[in-house]
Design goal:
Order of helices and strands: HHH
Number of helices: 3
Strand content: under 5%
Mean pLDDT: 93
Helix content: over 70%
Largest sheet: none
Length: 83
Amino acid sequence: MINDDFWSRFFLCSLLINYIILMIWFLVFIFARQWMKQVHGKWFQLSDPTFDAIHYAGMAVYKIGILLLNVVPFLALYLIRTS
């Protein structure tokens, strides 16, 4: 049977990996925005404000997903173990 320590480490590693992905996305958006827009421009005709809004919203949704699916279970396990 898998114990609480395994799940704590699992959620912590998952949190780390997801935040690394989010940071890479952010850094590419900041420093390679034109390349990113060119790649997306092959499939979609997006204006600059629309492109920015889509990526900003995408990063926000991804971050909320990280909080709900990684941080909350990790904190719940932590609180269960300390009580």
